[in-house]
Amino acid sequence: MKMRLASLGAQLTTWLNNAYAAPYVINSIPNQPLMSALSVDLKSILRMNYNVVNEQLKGSCKTDNVSEILVLLTNVVLQCLRTTQENHKGAFNLDLNSLVCSANDFLSIANCIEDFFEDMVASNDLLSPLVEAMSSIFTDDAISAARSTHLYIFECITEGEDESQPSHNTT
Amino acid sequence: MRTSHNLVTTQHKNSEITDPNSNFSLGAELASKLFSNSWETVQTSNEIAKSIVLTIRDFDGDLSTQLEAPLYWKSFQEQIRATVQFYVKTFVANSEGWGAVEGEDEDVRTNVFVSGEKVSERSERALMKTRNIYEPRLN
Fold it and tell me: Is residue B39 part of a domain?
């Protein structure tokens, strides 16, 4: 099973990287928050992974083993999400619009994660801290991106000085 | 466990969409005008402060609809902090050539700092260090 989880992790990382690397198309509807398809993509990747594992586990394991495997799997998913998010989040800070859009995306991903795991967490205590860690990766980055918006505003105000503001919001 | 539980929600402001790029000239070089000689003697009705506020409000009108409400609140808080920081920074940076010496001609002014710009940069670096230490604990 460990082997299986490792290969799942590798596959998940590839899928996530593809989702992040996809052309960043900002859906702009007047008076609506800017969004891209990233959160939807990530959600479907999660769903696919858990469906595959659930199918494989069905009938082949005892119930306590199933929950143990789910915890192991969720741990792998957490690591993958953390690494890919860490590697890619900087790429969204191109201009004010993509920064704003990425902030909304990250918040939406955090909400998706919580919705997705809601039922599983209810039946498995060990999952709860993992899921919380997962969603807080994205909540933190969403807040951080939202806070960075002032850099663009003041870049406009100090126009002429042409100094690149240090980005102190990346923690 | 809901994500929004630690985010303070705020009233959603309705304002028309404006292109921030169209107002670039409005904000241009406001930093060098603030606390300058003409700010002190000519533009005495807060014209520059008004321009700054207008520029921020322009951006803010967009952000209030384009950002999710709880995130907009975070952005807004940061804007207040950045405005204060901007004022202090500009004050120091533009303080070169201030301070008339007593007994001498009022036009003869000495520097408060050798280089206001350097002082401003250094104090910003110092603030950043402090911020890096305290910020993780504030969140």
Answer: yes
**Structural domains of chain A, with CATH:** 2-21+33-157 (1.10.357)
Report the length, in residues, of chain A.
171
Q: Is B48 helix (H, G, I), strand (E, B) or coil?
A: helix
Q: Residue B10 class from Cβ within 10 Å (0-12 exposed, 13-18 middle, 19+ buried)?
A: middle
Q: In the 8-state DSSP scheme, what is residue B109?
A: B
Residues with pLDDT less than 50, chain A = 160-171
Selected residue of A114, A156, A162 to mutate for chain B interface (largest B Cβ count, 10 A): A156
Interface test with B, best of A153, A164, A169, A171 (most B CBs within 10 A): A153
Looking at the 3D structure of chain B, how many domains does it have?
1
The answer to whether residue B80 is domain-embedded is: yes
Which pTM value belongs to this model? 0.74
Q: B72: which chain A residues are within 8 Å (Cβ-Cβ)? A: 146
Would the CB atoms of B78 and A146 count as touching at under 8 Å? yes
User: What ipTM was reported for this prediction?
Assistant: 0.78
| Token output for B28 | 């241009």
pLDDT tens-digit series, residues B30-55:
777 777 777 777 777 778 888 888 88
Residue B55 belongs to domain spanning: 8-138
- Rounded Cα distance, B21 and B35, in Å: 26
Which residues on A lie below 8 Å from B3 (Cβ)? 107, 110-111, 114, 135, 139
Question: Going by C-beta distance under 8 Å and a sequence separation of 6 or more, which residues neighbour residue B119?
Answer: B92, B93, B113
Beta bridge partners of A35: A27
Q: Is residue B82 part of a domain?
A: yes
User: Backbone phi, then psi, for B44, in 5-degree steps?
Assistant: -95, 0
Nearest to A90 by CA among A33, A144, A16, A164: A144
